[in-house]
Every structure is written in structure tokens, then in C-alpha cells.
Amino acid sequence: VEAIDGAEVRWRWDGFLPRSYLFSLEQVRSKPAGLRPISVPRGHLFISPDYECHVECADSSFVVLIGHCIDLARPSSSEADIARSLLRSAMQHGIDAMLAETDDLSGRFALICYAGDERHVVGDACATRTIYFAEDRPAIASHSILLGNLTGVEPRTVMFRHYWCALPGNASPVEGVRLLPANFVLTLGDRKMRRFWPRSRRCERPAAEVTEEVEQLLSKVVEVTPARWKPALSLTAGLDSRLSLSMYKGVSDLVTFTYERD
């Protein structure tokens, strides 16, 4: 979405959306522009050419892992290894066991699990890889406009005259399309959401104890990430970017960037 002359709001479409995907259990009338089809045992999956996904199958069950992630408990595992392990957990012990296994996953990803008669969708812990879902059909996508194209509904661009950063709740620019929040799992058949984490009652702990635990987790991420990719850190002089920079101070091969708003 872009503003023109400070007032008019227009939806701009340049080929395919970067790092985008669309999955539907029902037949898709026309292939999304610029996306390539990926073979899956059931349903129809489309991925943009600049993105990656891994499909693991066993009998009639399968797991699709879209995006990138690292298993902090087993850093040497590839995304294909992770998808295979998650599928095994879902088939042997059920969806809750598979969700528990995602505790050690760090990254930006969407996960589709089809085990037995159950079809679930879940994202990374912070929902950085957006998962939009249609309220009237079993379909998900990285961007609400992809589902709007599927359902024939145009985005409500007028909303951006009132909200410049984010929309309230799990609303989207497209009517009938919702966003899956962090730590929720979506049942694709009936589009019901369920919060699966935290799995234990809330309890208060000393700040020093929690700080040490969080620092250990962040240190593990910093340790394993450069072995796979070149880290890209946002620097805005805010608390978040200062924390990121302090954690990565020992990594020499990285990229920094900032933001500019006209």
C-alpha cells in the first residue's frame, strides 16, 4: 500500500510478493501470479520463486515447513530434518506433542501438518512469518491479498487512512480474512484457533533468574545463526536494536540496516 499526495491510498502490485505462499485444501481456479506450484499429497501449494519450503510425507500424512528455522536443541538439523521429526511426533503422539517440539525452533516459518484426519497450521513463536486464513474456506497465505484474489474480495485500502502501522486484533485489509496470532494453532477444516502456549500456569520468578535464562537462549541463537546465514540487524538506536548489536558484537560478518519514512 502506498500513499499518493498524502491522501489517496492505492494498492500496488508488482508481479509476485516476495517470500509469499498460498495453500488451499480446495481446488484453486487459477495459479497465483508469479508463484510456482509445489506437489503435496493433499491440497494445493504455491510458493514464490525467492522462497523455500520442505515437504515430508509418510503414508497419507505430511508436513510442510515454509521459510527458515533452526532447532536450538539440534543445530545441525536442516529444515528437512526438522520437518521429518515434527511429522514423526504428530503421527506417533498427536498434534500437541508436535507443538511441544516447536519450543526449540527459532526462525521465521509457517508449518502445515496433515496427520490422519487432522489438519493444522502453526507459525513461529513471534508470528514473524505471517499466516492469514480465509474464514469461509480452508486456505491460508502469507499475505491477505492472495486470499482476496482467491475469494474475489478487494482490500479495504481506506483502512490505512486510520491505521498506518497495524490493524486492530487479527483483522486484515481483506474482509473475511484473518491473521493467526503468535502461539495459536489453526485447525484448517473449521478455521478454529486454539492457544497452545504457554502449556503451564503462569508463575512469577526472580528477574535475575529469568534474565540469565533469556541470555542463554539468545546466546545460542547468536552462536548457530552465522553458521547458516549472514545475520542482518536493524539499527535504530532503540532498545531492541541495541540489544541485538550487543549480542552480535563478536560476529564480524553481518549486515546492518535502518528504516526511513517520508
Identify the notable features of this structure and list them briefly.
six-stranded antiparallel beta sheet; about 30% strand; 16 strands; about 260 residues; alpha+beta; disordered N terminus; globular
Structure summary:
The protein contains 5 helices and 16 strands.
How many E strands?
A: 16
Helicity, as a percent range:
10-25%
Q: How are the strands ordered across the major sheet?
A: 4-5-3-11-10-12
Question: H/E series, N to C?
Answer: EEEEEEEHHEEEEHEEEHEHE
Radius of gyration: 20 Å
End-to-end separation: 14 Å
Q: Can you count the helices?
A: 5
Strand content: 25-35%
What are the segments in which pLDDT stays under 50 over at least 5 consecutive residues?
1-11
Instruction: Summarize the main sheet.
Output: 6 strands, antiparallel
| Overall morphology | globular
Structural classification: alpha+beta
User: Mean pLDDT, as a whole number?
Assistant: 90
Description:
The chain is an alpha+beta fold. The chain has helices at 79-93, 95-101, 144-151, 207-224, 239-247; strands at 2-4, 8-10, 21-24, 36-38, 44-47, 53-58, 61-71, 105-115, 118-123, 132-134, 139-141, 177-179, 184-187, 192-195, 232-234, 255-257.
